[in-house]
Amino acid sequence: MESPWLLEYLFFFLIRPLLAISFVVCFIALWWFLAWKLVLSHVPLVQEIFGLRKKTIIPKPESRGRISKFYKSITSQNPVPQW
């Protein structure tokens, strides 16, 4: 028959710390899950890091801005002679 002090020591040194650690881990996991669902899953940088969203590549048009239009107008007015 076991003595009551052995059960008290077992509870105090083994079971109680395990319960405390599991409580902290569950608390952190709950808040991480809530943060993930509410905020983090909508941040594009986090989506790219975890591979949740494929990056879409949009091709750039030939004449994007004023500079390319300017150089096109110059070459059309003064064609380069070909040798």
TrEMBL record:
| Pfam families, sorted | DUF4750 (PF15938)
Question: What is the superkingdom listed in this entry's lineage?
Answer: Eukaryota
* Record keywords, A-Z: Membrane, Transmembrane, Transmembrane helix
Q: Which InterPro entries match?
A: DUF4750
Spell out where the chain crosses the membrane: 6-34
Under PANTHER family, the record lists: TRANSMEMBRANE PROTEIN
What protein am I looking at?
ATP synthase F0 subunit 8
